[in-house]
Design a protein that fits this description.
Distance between the termini: 21 Å
Oligomer: single chain
Order of helices and strands: EEEEEEEHHHHEEH
Number of helices: 5
Shape: globular
């Protein structure tokens, strides 16, 4: 009866000591359902491009610890190894939504690392790359026809924020959003963030996109 199981994947850091984030990937799933691994880096088993294998239950007794972000040295070595693969991945699979997030993240981190090496200074190339990252994020928000959920957009928000700040544009917004439905409390959605936005028009588009994704099942026949 179960198509797959979800297990906690904990991304942690030892320097500084913290849990960075926790994912729930489907690591154990039924065979012969057409699953393939897509991508040149950060591959995931999917039934079709961008459509992850769904799981029916999360098993709390199984956890994976991911040490790819253990300390700053490890994080930077990981970036320099992966970014060329992310670029090639984006060229080969332009519609792979996870890679759009990874590409945005690595664009921001590349600028961040180089500015630190320059003592906080920046270059015209940094501005070009930051603008490119802002454009990429705007496409992610406006393209909700695929499998881009609120989680992916909110995870990418800090990198977009950094790039907008690099450009010296926009304004900062402090948002605390909570939605719930008494008929289906498990469908509750929360989003709390503080971020810079490059334009008022995009800020409205972003908030409306979050609301639409959060409430799309409220009027369904079966909640």
């Amino acid at each position: 009866m179960h198509n797959g199981y979800g297990f906690k994947q904990i991304h942690y850091s030892a320097e500084p000591a913290q849990v960075l984030t926790t994912d729930l990937p489907c690591r154990f799933f039924r065979n012969r359902q057409g699953a393939k691994f897509y991508g040149l880096v950060h591959e995931h088993p999917e039934t079709e491009m961008g459509k992850a294998i769904t799981y029916s239950i999360v098993r709390p007794e199984v956890e994976f610890l991911h040490g790819g972000y253990t300390d700053e040295k490890t994080r930077r070595e990981r970036f320099y190894r992966n970014f060329p693969l992310v670029v090639k991945d984006k060229e080969k699979y332009p519609d792979r939504h996870l890679n759009r997030f990874l590409y945005l993240r690595d664009l921001a981190q590349g600028i961040m690392f180089e500015k630190e090496q320059m003592g906080g200074g920046g270059t015209a190339e940094h501005l070009e790359r930051a603008q490119h990252a802002v454009d990429e994020y705007e496409k992610m928000v406006k393209d909700r026809s695929g499998y881009i959920g609120n989680r992916l957009l909110l995870d990418a928000l800090p990198y977009y924020d950094f790039c907008v700040e690099t450009l010296g544009k926009g304004f900062r917004a402090d948002v605390d959003l909570g939605l719930s439905h008494e008929a289906a409390p498990d469908l509750g959605n929360k989003a709390k963030f503080n971020s810079r936005f490059h334009s008022v028009e995009f800020f409205r588009t972003f908030i409306n996109s979050l609301l639409e994704e959060s409430t799309k099942r409220y009027e369904a026949k079966h909640l």
